[in-house]
Amino acid sequence: MNLSALSLRDLEYVVAVAELRHFGRAAERCAVSQPSLSAQIRKLEEALGLSLFERTSRKVLLTPRGEAIVAQARVVLEEARRLLVLADGSDGALTGRLRLAAIHTLGPYLFPHILPALRNGWPDLTLILSEGRTETLLEELRDGRLDAVLLALPVESDGLVAEPLFFEPFLLAHPAGHRLCAMPTLSLNDLDPAELLLLEEGHCLRDQALAACGLSARGGGVHATGLETLRHMVAAGAGCTLMPLLAATGEDGRLATVGGLVDYRPFDSTSDASRPPGRIVGLVRRVSDPRDRGLRDLAALLRRTLPPGTESVLAQRDE
């Protein structure tokens, strides 16, 4: 096979099918008919002399050799995007499309705060938003499937740059009328570990809550799949939980009390800690991204657009 038989468009088709595991949805993403997409992938497979996918009536799976081909296809497509960025003379500015993702416990609550500023700052930028878990988002960022991610720091930074944005405190969410309501101040030592409700394994907020409370990975007996379920478990009287500030308030700034069944209490700073329990939210991007200047501008804008109740965290590098 020579290079003339290989097109970037075909590689886009292959990567889309690999990510969506569905030919129809991949065709929709690529704005092409499914028969055309399938025919081009078949043609590419014949040219390569191998099968990229296992096709059944119910699912599409990558073959072992297909996994390697798709990984390299992502590299080729990312380098092609770099070429376009360098060629358009934008000097690293944000143009075209930006694939921005956030962890599940942050995205739904942060995006409403930052979207107006993003739309005003880059009106011609096409934003593609998504959510996921930290490990998955970092993998997609390194593979070039995402351009930047918003998550809790620190993270494994090999090949990545993390821009700290702000500190978000945790509040204690407890049933209305709980014994802790009568306490004049609140510290982590006041919590009963047996009452602590957590997210299921795989959520970084679970690990942060356990660490803040000084508990092992087995701490907390009841788990939830997401923050909204966790909030409703508190409303049902099942226990208490640490709730990120942004998740405790709606777009109007009011606390989400589930009909008055949930109360929130802030934690007091202790003598050995400058801040109450919480997390540092940051923007993470690839070192190799040619839009470095634009992504640094994005981080600077996000620092200026602090959600109410959060605290600025200055980056270690100059703006």
Q: Major beta sheet, specifics?
A: 8 strands, mixed
Number of domains: 2
Give the C-level CATH assignment of the largest domain. Answer: Alpha Beta
Unreliable residue stretches: 315-319
Can you tell me the overall shape?
Answer: elongated
- CATH-scheme architecture of the largest domain: 3-Layer(aba) Sandwich
Structural class: alpha/beta
Note the gap between the termini.
48 Å
Amount of helix: 25-40%
Secondary-structure element sequence? HHHEEHEHEHEEEHEHEHEEHE
- The total count of helices amounts to 10
Strand content: 15-25%
Radius of gyration: 23 Å
At the fold tier of CATH, the topology name of the largest domain is D-Maltodextrin-Binding Protein, domain 2
Mean of residue pLDDT values: 87
Number of strands: 12
Domain HTH lysR-type: 6-63
Protein name: LysR family transcriptional regulator
GO molecular function, one term: DNA-binding transcription factor activity
Keywords: Activator, DNA-binding, Transcription, Transcription regulation
